[in-house]
Design a protein that fits this description.
Elements (H helix, E strand, L loop, with lengths): L5 H7 L5 E12 L3 E5 L7 E5 L6 H6 L5 E10 L7 E12 L15 H6 L8 H23 L3 E2 L5 E2 L11 E2 L26 E3 L4 H11 L1 E9 L12 E10 L3 H22 L1 H16 L11 H10 L3 E4 H9 L2 H4 L16 H12 L3 E7 L20 E9 L3 E8 L4 H10 L8 H8 L5 E7 H9 L20
Parallel strand pairs: 3-5, 6-10, 12-13
Antiparallel strand pairs: 1-2, 1-4, 2-3, 4-5, 7-9, 8-9, 10-11, 11-16, 13-14, 14-15, 15-16
Helix pairs in contact: 4-6, 4-7, 4-14, 6-8
The structure holds 4-amino-1,4-dioxobutan-2-aminium adenosine-5'-monophosphate and magnesium ion.
Length: 482
Amino acid sequence: MKRIKIAEILRTEPVGTEVTVKGWVKAFRNNQFIALNDGSTSNNLQVVVDFENTDEQTLSRIKFGAAVSATGTLIESQGKGQKVEVKANSVEILGDCNPDEFPLQPKRQTLEFLRENAHLRFRTNTFAAVFRTRHALAYAIHKFFNDRGFYYIHTPVITASDAEGAGEMFRVTTLDLDKLPRTESGEIDFSKDFFGRSTNLTVSGQLEGELAATALGEIYTFGPTFRAENSNTTRHLAEFWMIEPEMAFYDLQDNMQLAEDMLKYVIRYALEYCADDLKILEERLIEEEKSKPQDQRSEMTLTEKLRFVMENEFVRLTYTEAIDILKNSTPNKKGKFQFPVEGWGTDLQSEHERFLVEKHFKKPVILTNYPAAIKAFYMRQDDPKEGVPGPTVSAMDILFPGIGEIVGGSQREERYDRLVNRMQEMHIPEQELSWYLDTRRFGSCPHAGFGLGFERLILFVTGMTNIRDVIAFPRYPGSAEF
Ligand code: 4AD
Ligand code: MG
């Protein structure tokens, strides 16, 4: 008999037909009722075992976590909670699961415990819901861009450049670390290395993306990105996935609009196609919030929050305007910020971003025109503006409730001389990026792009609170297990 997936059975309800289902036992009650799940949906299928005609040995092996195959007739269910069930005439154990040894238990377990057992956490309802939603969001992103005529470009994972100029890179080498070759002046001789030069894992596909955009028009990347920043937070990973669209002939306004449209599109997609999983995740969040003091609980449920973001315009303001708000804010005046906002020019911390979004505007916020000094070399330099103390660039960051920065982007500096000047000021070696500068030498054009942190998007949509719980095998300082 051909196996039918549980999602299909629940969708089509082919009552009266003979079916074979396979999955893992979520519960076994009264020596008779198996709640079976095969991952195709968050919903379990009830399999009713004919216990009088099933041998004791098999019955005793139907345990939480065991893999089983059952064949029988699909009938309308007499019991509450499900419309159909399988009246099984045979049950076969595919893989035993000894409850004394299986680390998972059929009860709520802490996320910390599950993180330590990340190789098994797919088996829990919460993580299955997270990873189905993650998949749907990835698909929605591809669909959004494909429907708008963007091309998906694969940028290299191993590079010789530092796209962000922040020096937070993982080195890639085949040199023997115990016997490093040295040059005459005593430095490591990377000409002896695999690529004949020093290389690292990419921190961003943007620079290569710009090469493609200035020929193909509108492109995006979607790949793994690596940052050796020592940030032990609930929003940072050393290995994360980033979506980076890059568009010729877009200015900052066009860029912001695209980002806002994209975020709303994928949130709408999740609400439409991940309803069952979002329900599980919403209930999980309600449980989690019960352990918090009343004033720290969110006013909206997960789906209310998603709808709210989808239905409201994001607030747009400049960095300079934001600094004024923050300087005069109650937490700043009362010394409640860990990093007091002293004045124009300081980088915003996540507590400041979250104040703007969660307390002041109560909406997603797009901040623009940041000081040049705190942003990357490739951002377009703004004309001086009255009331703005120093030079700014056409940057934009999108800030989300509970997350802080979810998107970072800018219009790019397309003017060759300006770009080279900025690189010199920031000590970025020109000869290493000569290929990048060529876009500005030959047919340069205004263009813009941004980066969306995929895991931060999943955090927001699933209502999970730690980024390590939305990627299957998280990499962070001190941890690269599995
Ligand atoms: O702001 P970032 O560093 O910008 C760039 O890399 C640009 N090259 C993007 C572009 O314009 N094409 O990173 C972009 C986004 C952030 O807004 C954040 O969502 C996410 O990537 N991100 C991280 N996510 C998880 N862990 C980290 N360590 C992250 N660093 C950045
Ligand atoms: Mg950023």
